[in-house]
Each structure stands twice: as structure tokens, then as C-alpha cells.
Amino acid sequence: MTTPAPHLVGNFAPVVDELTSHDLPVTGSVPRGLTGWYLRNGPNPHEAASAHWFLGSGMVHGVRLEAGRATSYRNRWVRNSTFTDDAMVYDELGNRDLTAGASNTSVVRHAGRVLALSESTLPYLLTPELDTAGAHDFGGKLRTAMTAHPKTCPTTGELHFFGCGMLTAPYLTYHRTNAAGELTVSRDITGVGSTMMHDFALTAEHVVFMDLPVVFDVERAISGLPMPYRWDPSYAARLGVLRRDDPHGEVRWFDIDPCYVFHVPNAHDEGDGIVLSVIRYPELWRTDSGEAYPVASLWRWTVNLTTGKVTEEQLDDRNTEFPRIDDRLAGLDARHVHTVVAASHPRHDPVPGALLRYDMHTGSVTEHTFGPGRIPSEAAFAPADDRPGGEGWLMTFVYDASTDKSDLVIVDAGDLGAPPVATIHLPQRVPYGFHGSWLPDPGTRVGDVGRR
Ligand SMILES: [Fe+2]
Prior knowledge:
single chain, 452 residues, mainly beta, six-stranded antiparallel beta sheet, 3 helices, 33 strands, globular, binds fe (ii) ion, oxidoreductase, Dioxygenase, iron, EC 1.13.11.-
């Protein structure tokens, strides 16, 4: 009898039922100002077990809040072509099927469309009931996959993102839509290898790409390893800066120390430079087969566009991941970054985790812990008013090992030391997953109904 892989046991194991449940029990009080859906995506392999945590079929879990009540929970697989027809990302001839993949990494809304995303696949449209409405290729204009970490500019409403090739160039293509969701820019960026590019940075004036030394490895792919990427010490680490007002213009490259970064909390322009916050791994997958996750911590990179130098500073030494900000400050000088301590990777022993709130202006940190055996996931920021950077809540799925169930927990982002504002008890556990969004109903004005 073989031992299940770490990414298939405990709360990494998939759930088998798609549920719809109404009038959820709540401890505490759901803020009356919150009306909308909290949606979160993550791997939930169906039928056969997945070969790697990153490869399980996507399942979106959603909790509906309405003016002080938690009115429903539902969870649905993202029915992409791999789910419905076993479609392969590449066929035997090396042809790529952009509808195939996992669709398991994030869920975002732009121009009224709710999109389930993973970086090897086209976005998939979801209905308000979380049914899958098909792949979305922006009217046939999108010819690459789409990162799971697009950025919406709060000033213009544009959606900025990229797509990566894997076996053949171009390995990096930059895309932009207008506020209506129409694809207006698609531009290949040459000179980049087949690197694993998971996220990027947006500022008011720039787009920043991370060309880092975790690269596609043909030998690993041929040998059947589920994660065909490895650390390449000969591959230079660098940042590529593109001006937003010249999207087809030059990309300037800036060398940095070797490292890997999955996630960029935020970035902004400052003087003649760009300041990025990143969750930095000193290296990744050098000797292992793509399943170990070293300690990652919060760093700041400051790109001096005049001298060409990048200053790199570690801001904290805690092991942390899944950073989020008030998305209304994307690309601007957001004061607060929220992260999860001891993110529950399959190769780590799950330990009682915590949410952190970093004050990027003062360096102070506040923390919320959830008690023994209670493990949080990424926390989305839900605004309490119309002021970007103002008050709000963090909402996260918390797994309770003692009950083998999960709650949606809402805490006051400005008072993390306080008990949760609301703990919404769900009818089943929510496996550890990746990224989600708070999607207030269109037209909802939090200030109209009060903060509590
Ligand atoms: Fe991610």
C-alpha cells in the first residue's frame, strides 16, 4: 500500500461533494455593509489524484453575504476542457490547447465578468451561481494563456496581465484591456527564457516583469516529473520595466540577486524609481523535484531608473505568503500589506497560522491568530467605506483540525488583536487553496448602510 502524497492528505485532500447550503450559522455578527460574494479558487482533483499540488482541478468555494446575514455557501468545480474532456495542455506533437489546464489558482472580476484563472490556461467565465460558462478569449484576441495575477488599475480601470509560453517562444506576452474588458494591447517581449513567471507588478506609470532562475526543464518533463521547472544557477535574475504610456516600446532590464518570487503584494512609482514589495524565496527547486518550499519573507526592491541599480532589503524574517492589499490601491503607495504566516504548503507541518498586517510606512506589524489547530488561508480585503486605504475587513477560510470543517472568518483589518467580527460556519471543510476575491454586489455602497 502506497502512502498518499502530502498534497492529497489532511486538508489538502479534495472534497467530493458540490454543495448548496443556505442560512449559514454565524458566531458574532456579519458586518451589515457587506453584500456580495467571497469566492476562492484552489486545487481539488477529481477522479484520479493529481500529481502535484499545483495541478489539481480547480474548485471555487463561495460564500454569499447579504446585509448582516450569511445567506449561502456553494462549491463548484471549474468545468474546463480538461475537467470535461481530459484535454491536455500539449498534445504529442507539441500543439498547445489553451482551454486545457487546471483553472485552479484565482478568481477575479473585471468589467462585470467573473474569471477563474490559472497561468497555463485561458480564463474561464463563471456565472453568479459558480457554473462554468466557457473559456474567455476576449473575442478571439487572446492568443496566450493568462496569468492568475492580473492587475486592475484603480485609476483607469484597465486590466493588465501577461501570458507565458512553455515549449516555444514567445515565452512572454504582455496584454492590456480597457475598462470595458476589450483587449487593446498584446505585445510579445523577446529575450526572455522559459521561466516560471507567476506574478508581476503594476504601478501608475510602469509594468514590471520578473525574469527569475526557475526555468522549464525538458529533461524533467520527459522523465515525467509533475513539475517540469527547476532552479538554473546560470540563468540571470532581472526585472523588466515597461512604460505604460509606451506599451510597444523598450523593456529596460535591471539585474537583481538570484531568488524566486511567486507573489508581489504591490508596487508604486516614487521619484525616479519604482518600489516593489515581494515575497522572496532565496531559491526554489534546486535539488528537489519541485515540491519543497523554503522559507519566504517580505522584501522591498527599489529600482533606480537613473542609475540602473536595484536596492534589495529584507523587511521581516517571518515565513509568510499570500500577500494582499486593498486592491483599490493597486499600483499606488498602499500603506498596508496583509499576509499569512506559515502558509500551509504540503511539505510543511500545518501549524496554527496567523494573519499579518504590515504597515509599509512605519514597519510595524500586527497579527491575528485563530487558536490551536485553526489554520487560515489567504485573506481578501473587503472595504468598509469608499476611501481607498481606509477601514475594512479581512476574510479568510480557516480550517479547524478538531472538527475537520472550515469557517469563513471576518476580522477587522485595523484591529487584528481583537476577536473575529464574524465566524461563518460552513457545511464542509474547504481544502487549502490559493487565491480569492471579495466581490461586492455592483452598486453596493458600504457607507450607505454603515460599518457594522
Ligand atoms: Fe499565486
